[in-house]
Amino acid sequence: MHQLLGSLPHQIFRDLANKYGPFMYLKIGQVPTIVVSSPEFAKEVMRTHDTIFASRPQTLFANIMLYGCTDMAFSPYARVQSFRPIREQELLNLMEWIASNVGLGIDLSERIQKSTHGITSRAAFGKKSKDHDEFISIMEESLTFAAGFEFTDLFPSLNFIDLISPARSKLEKLKQRAERIIENIIEEHIEKNKSPLKAGGESETHADFVDVLLKFHAKDDLGFSLTSDNVKALIWDIFTAGGETSATTIDWAMAELVRNPGIMKKAQDEIRKVFSKKGRVDEAEVTNMRYLKSIVKETLRLHSPVPLLLPRESTEKCEINGYEIPVKTRIVVNAWAMGRDPKYWTEPDSFIPERFLDSSIDFKGNNFEYIPFGAGRRICPGISFGLINVELPLAYLLYHFDWKLPNGMKHEDLDMTELLSITVRRKEHLHLIPIAYDISCVEKSQGG
Ligand code: HEM
């Protein structure tokens, strides 16, 4: 659909909502769909009728990559603090690499992707898989089919076409490659837990996400059991939901900062004032950086990485605003459109972090005009982990380096075109030239 109309779905839905209103019934292909584009109706769906809309539709992507939608049976754990050494190490590695490229053009987007996925993998799987880079590229390719707008998602009764659809065969192949990597990760954990050192079981403090999943694998005695497919789908979920969203947010934030040098300078002043004495960033103090936090909030408002949240589907009929919503209606909530609605935001299309400095608006699902993490019982369970994974890398990038655009490019010319997948990234990779500000601690760590 989006290719035909030349815009991305969240943009098309906003234009339609401007014309036909914020609670719109559409038939997309054969699928009855309600598109919600106002905080009042978002609240109706995600608070008043939360239970009815807590299901997700079974799309082609979810059926194949998520093992018939057997993922997310429960929220992942969020021992955010305990992953601090992992974050520090990965980010120091990234700083070292950037320091060795000072004055040269680098593909910052690619490096951010790698290190964010590195943090997620090490937190979730104990270490980076030996097939880390391949796993990232499989994920990237498969996510382009995840938005739920494939032919077969829109015409479910024509499933004979589905069987020969190029999307299905591509996804099947990607799944086979991903499965091999995921099975290796599981196998390594099973072996590790068999080792004599681990006799008596992995200690709770060192158990990673996969260890926790394996404890619930096929064990009814714990009152809750996961099948092999559940375990594999959950590993996939964490890798994609955890890494991709954070990397996309950092990338947009850096692009906005490069386009707005005054804001970049203000952020660097805040960060450098605090860390200059130490000569390095300290995670414990990043939580007090008010301006940096406002930058992250503003980035999530303008560039919500999951602009249409994840689709939902009604499990029984209900009434909203005098309309009867039948069972199995798909619900699309346009968080991106609400985040840019002039009714709620002054200068909605401008990047102004100051708007959040003295504002009580947060993204925990209470202010429905601002829901980059969703709301209700399907709200993102990874908010804290996601936020620190964005704030900390930004603090490192802004503390240690100044940033210039290559080839004499002007900051206002930076292309902010969006690219569709289930997350919305910038179409172009961010190529920048790092200039050293204070890299003494990175150089020291290089030396040994
Ligand atoms: C900047 C970072 C992130 C953003 C913007 C984000 C955004 C979202 C959004 C919009 C949803 C859908 C919510 C809804 O439908 O109401 C979601 C779901 C989810 N997120 Fe995140 N997320 C981020 C980071 C993370 C991280 C770090 C993890 C895990 C470690 C994670 C795990 C999940 C999972 C498992 C779901 C599915 C929840 C469910 O269906 O019940 N996310 N996220």
TrEMBL record:
Protein's UniProt name: Cytochrome P450
SUPFAM superfamilies: Cytochrome P450
A cellular component annotation (GO) from this entry: membrane
Family matches, as InterPro entries: CYP450_71D, Cyt_P450, Cyt_P450_CS, Cyt_P450_E_grp-I, Cyt_P450_sf
Molecular functions (GO terms): heme binding; iron ion binding; monooxygenase activity; oxidoreductase activity, acting on paired donors, with incorporation or reduction of molecular oxygen
UniProt: heme binding residues: C380
Pfam family for this entry, one: p450
Membrane topology summary: Single-pass membrane protein
Keywords: Heme, Iron, Membrane, Metal-binding, Monooxygenase, Oxidoreductase, Transmembrane, Transmembrane helix
Family recorded in the similarity comment: Belongs to the cytochrome P450 family.
Subcellular location: Membrane
Cofactors named for this entry: heme
Presence of keyword Endoplasmic reticulum: no
Main location: membrane
Residues forming coiled coils: none
